[in-house]
Amino acid sequence: MFKGIGFSYKLVWVNSKSYLFFMAFIKVITGLIPVTLIYLTQKLINEVVGLFSKESSYSSVFFLFSLQIGIILFSFFLQYLSIINEKKVTIVIGKIINISIFEKINQISFINFEKPATYNKIQRLSSNQSCVLNVVEESSSLIRDLITVSSILFFLIAQHWAFILILFVGILPLFFIEMSYGNKRFELAKFLTPFGRLESYIAGLLNNRDSLKEIKLFGTGKYLISKWEENYQLFANNELSLLKKQGIFTFIAQFLLITTYALSGILVLLLISSGKLLVGSFVSVLQAVQNIQESLSNISRNIAKIYESSLFIEEYREFMEIEEMNDGHHGSVINHIEAIQIRDLAFTYPDELKPAIQNISIDIPLGKKIAIIGENGSGKTTLTKCISGLYEVSTGMISINGMDMNHINKNSFHKKISVLFQDYEKYNFTVKENIGFGNINNIENAEEIQLAAIRTGIHSKVEKFPKQYETILGRLFDGGLELSGGQWQKLALSRSLFRETDLIILDEPTSSLDPISEIEILQQLFKQTPDKSMIFITHRLGTAYLADEILVMKNGEIIERGSHSDLLSYRGQYYEMYTSQSQLYEKEGLVL
Ligand SMILES: Nc1ncnc2c1ncn2[C@@H]1O[C@H](COP(=O)(O)OP(=O)(O)OP(=O)(O)O)[C@@H](O)[C@H]1O
């Protein structure tokens, strides 16, 4: 808890000192206001009573009354300033925490995103980013309440010592209940995160145009809604049951509070009847008891909240400490990829027993074009993710220009490769951005962007758009134009080609294209890039024959390799796949 407080104050101090000073000022003043009002009430009542015996004057009553109203108005004004001040700092800290989470996500190894635990953590952090501010706000309110309590305690001791005893016996149970439920609330939030994620995933499916078309046609809407409802109910039931349990204990604790209030009232009546206190004290002591009880229960509630928020802060700190991707800042810089060698590579996904790929050895000298083919799940994509450095390899070795990939400067390597994945991104931004993201430093180079679009044939379509390369794509935002699946793929391919690289990795780059466009684009690409290495995954063998070497994968291993004619003469798996596909193509009257 103290770590959490220290962390939060440091963050606010570094980013918004003025907020802290102003907040401290407001809390001290508002902490002293209750005792001032109690004192004024006591004085006022005694003065009013004195009016009957002519011991006091109307002017002093009026003065005290105005002073009381003035102080109340002043406290309202302070509340207003405090809300504005808090909002300002919420904006600053919210921005800092969010950016730090985004940056961390950007830095940590991609393998973390193969684990649901990472998504759970990110979801919890994103929805609890206000914790830092809560800790600062709650701990400063704690100080305000401590000032209020101690100042009122002085006032009560001045009346009679027994009040203090009554008060503490009444407040202790509430304190322990709040503490224990702070912990339980955090554990519940942790337990419920996966259910919350499932809930928002289903809500996303029901809101998203792409998923909605399947939902409508398959008629799965009702099923998904009931799945959402089931989850929602589970979420709500758990929260409700914790609230109910806490409610019962809080009720008992509050019963004790009322008892102490009643006991204080009886004590003050006894003291008045014995002439030890004046009538004004009856109202002011009860007001003081009420105030002190309120402040003490605020204190216990705030400590519980600080405790709860500190657990989230601890989680944030842990997240920030996740080891970042080994980008080999100190490793050798790769300015040009001369050759890639892969030796006995194996890779196993987290929580899996069997490796997804194994015994992989490949040589990729500069300019070599390699096609990878194989049935679904044979490990083709996993292999390209390892070669592109997304997954850190522990078994076997990938070497770049003779250097172990784990010891090179990854950033410099990434600058020299370009990857188009099967599930490429369709950015609902402009055409320019969709292509320009391939080389963000060159995004303003309209000529090269256009060249990349010409190479995949998408330029002829973009030309006809009203705003051409400034046209927004997709249907998410106003004015967006939609492309066909194949056009999106051509655009994504242009993005990969826009990047000035030595190695291009394409995972089924032409799966949505018609066979004519597919052959044309790939033939052009091969011709235009004699000095670039290329690895492309394909299920259509009509393009694989263009490669210098074809690798056939099965169950995570390379089972055949060679040129198109070598593989045909082996009469193995490739031969079988090729002949069955060519028969199909011939039937359709197409060429393979
Ligand atoms: N994130 C993951 N976590 C665990 N296992 C995975 C993960 N991604 C893929 N796999 C498993 O690894 C194996 C290889 O998958 P991979 O995606 O590399 O196959 P692929 O040859 O590219 O398939 P496809 O032709 O269908 O694209 C499969 O058995 C798959 O179930």
TrEMBL record:
GO MF entry, a single one: ATP hydrolysis activity
Pfam families xref list: ABC_tran
Localization (cell): Cell membrane
Residue span, ABC transporter domain: 340-580
SMART domains attached to this UniProt entry: AAA
Keyword Membrane: yes
Membrane topology of the entry: Multi-pass membrane protein
Entry keyword set: ATP-binding, Membrane, Nucleotide-binding, Transmembrane, Transmembrane helix
Transmembrane segments: 20-40, 61-81, 152-177, 248-272
Coiled coil: none
Protein name: ABC transporter ATP-binding protein
Protein species of origin: Heyndrickxia oleronia
